[in-house]
Amino acid sequence: MTIQDLYNKKEEIVASMRTILEKADSESRAMTDEEVASYEALDKDLDRLDQTIERMAKVEAAEADTKHPIRKLYQPANCRNKPDNPEEFRNIGEWLATGRFNPGDKRLEYREQSMGTGAEGGFAIPEKFRPEILAVAPAPAIFRPRATVIASTDPPDSALTMPVLDQTAAENVYGGIVVDWIAEGGTKNLTDLRLKEFKLEPKEVAGYLITTDKLLRNWAGASNYFTQQFRQAIAGAEDMAFYSGSGVGRPLGILNSPARIDYTRAGANAIAYADVVGMYARLKMGGSPVWIASQTTIPQLCTMTDNATGSNAIWVQNAAPGIPPTLLGIPVLFHDRSVALGTKGDLILADLSYYYILDGSGPYVAFSEHVAFTQNKTYIKIFWNVDGSPWLSAPLPLEGSTANTVSPFIVLN
What residue ranges do the domains of the chain occupy? Predict the structure, then answer.
């Protein structure tokens, strides 16, 4: 059976699915149980057929490579023009177009498999473009520019376990070390350094975009568009996970960290000056904290005053462009994925240097022209591996007042 035969079969399946949908629609009713079962069976057949087409196309392309030194696939004119250095791509757009229209190009690095997930095909983004994709400024990304980022290990997706001090209330802020003044001839204190293990293991995350083949062929003009889309998607996915991830199959966010302190607000659906001061009093001092706020808190912040008469505004909106507003001299960053006003986490005070990010392999990109073959569109999937977690496992007791605790993560409850 040829690929064309498979496409003919696919056309028949799609026509049958359309018939079922149109019959129910023409009779102004929902599909019957029998129709639903038939439709779902056809849908599964379609998925299997797409997989078969993809496998057969790959085999035929490999067979063609063994017969012809130059792959005889259509290549846009721009892809055929040799760059100044034939061993390098000029930009992301050229790399994407080459991966889609000329996958046999020897400059492409193919990824056969990844740790823990078996065979996962895709092209590795060239090393020189990786910083361009992952380089996010503090404005669009909150966590990565301020967190402690650890480069990928070897092998790149393996777990990383680090020893850290046990600074919980059961020990002390020095991890069990006891320091005392000793009189002449006195007995020195015995000390016991207490360590704990902190583990990070990159998890895979993926997303995709749909582009027309015409846009992809115009890679010179579209390169900035693709770079921007990938960068925003990666920053958004990571920020959401580092903010509220469960830690199961994804990073552990500060909103679910056992090291956080939940500070109870004075009034429901409101943020008062007393809340801001109370949260600041529980912050572990000495770092570079930021406020992470939901955009829905702006009316509360703008009208906040330091006393009952409302004479002194607290929220300082700086006039200089690019400088964030401040609360108690600490920058306020608005996180558009934060929860609504009045919900736990609508305002967080955090020192993100205590949040650790471990990069794994990737990003990688894979292409599929089969899903939207008749529309001349290509699905571009980007996937990478990353993990993140606060390295503290509990709030820290104050050295002079062990009954009171502080943390680098204070969440308004």
Answer: 3-72, 88-178+190-413
